[in-house]
Amino acid sequence: MKPCAQSRKEPTNQQTVQQHIARLIQEHRNYGKGKTPWQINNGYCQEFADELVHRLRAGQVLEIDPDWFYSDPTSAPSHAFVKYGGKYYDSETPLGVEDPLNLPIFKRAKTKVLKLIRTT
Fold this sequence. Notes:
globular, 4 strands, alpha+beta
């Protein structure tokens, strides 16, 4: 993971994070930028993460670039998400997770790779 330039101190609480994520999801729906959190994560994740950090006035946007993170770039999605208060957040994870590999987008990618391995 490489941190983006946008990084701030971390003064707010878990409930505030959840509220901001819920509002951002609704705004994305209203503006046609993903009807579901999955769709937001698969096309608007950078915008979502940047806006979440802006609203929290805290946290750090992280990006996964499959070209340097994985030996096989086709096995992983490119993704932007937020590190805040020791947890990782994206549009599908309003409660946060302690390990970024537990974000649903990466769990799905891992499952996909394991299925490919098992069928070869």
